[in-house]
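TA notes, week 10

Several of you asked for a full example with nothing omitted. So below is the full record: structure tokens for the whole chain, then the designed sequence directly under it. When grading your own attempts, check the secondary structure regions first.
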């Protein structure tokens, strides 16, 4: 489990194709404190650490295996040099600064527009129709591993759009500050909304 509060921005050092993908990610984390088998959210995707170490400059790195299924359901992030929002799994007793995040991506959203809004930026996204029931104004959403609040939702004839605001701090400490129109992001809906939908569907039988 995660909170959607990014604690490092890593970078994909290398990608090796071996059935799925083996990705090596540079990180500022102290890899001595990262166990093999630990979970790290990489731009919202929960992955298992299968190797780790330090390079000749003392920079930490960890390796993860990414299945074809994961690649097919997430944004195009497994590219050498790509920046990734990183978050280690939360521990019992940690402060829940964002909201409950599972690291299981529900779909991919596309940036429609990026506009200034005071010191912030208002970013609008288009999402697949199946995600529309889970998005509500003032509800929570996770984008590329970042916990955010939905400001507005609009259902149109050609799909659903929602908007969020990025404050200067979020832009500075995550990859979202570089978002531009047509960029794709991993979307995870609020886990509570997912369970409520299941409960409603079961009750309607």
């Amino acid at each position: 489990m995660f909170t959607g509060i990014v604690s490092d921005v890593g970078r994909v050092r290398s990608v090796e194709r071996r059935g799925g993908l083996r990705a090596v990610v540079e990180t500022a984390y102290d890899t001595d404190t990262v166990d093999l088998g630990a979970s790290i959210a990489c731009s919202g995707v929960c992955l298992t650490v299968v190797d780790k170490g330090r390079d000749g400059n003392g920079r930490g790195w960890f390796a993860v295996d990414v299945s074809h299924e994961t690649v097919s359901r997430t944004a195009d992030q497994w590219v050498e040099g790509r920046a990734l929002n990183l978050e280690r799994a939360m521990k019992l007793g940690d402060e829940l600064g964002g909201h409950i995040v599972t690291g299981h991506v529900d779909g991919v959203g596309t940036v429609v527009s990026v506009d200034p809004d005071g010191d912030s930026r208002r970013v609008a996204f288009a999402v697949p129709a199946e995600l529309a029931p889970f998005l509500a104004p003032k509800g929570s959403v996770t984008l590329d591993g970042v916990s955010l609040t939905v400001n507005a939702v609009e259902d149109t004839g050609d799909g659903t759009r929602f908007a969020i605001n990025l404050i200067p701090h979020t832009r500075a400490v995550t990859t979202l500050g570089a978002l531009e129109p047509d960029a794709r992001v991993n979307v995870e809906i609020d886990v509570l909304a997912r369970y409520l939908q299941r409960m409603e569907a079961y009750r309607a039988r």
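The chain has two domains: 8-88, 107-203. Use that as a sanity check on your answer.
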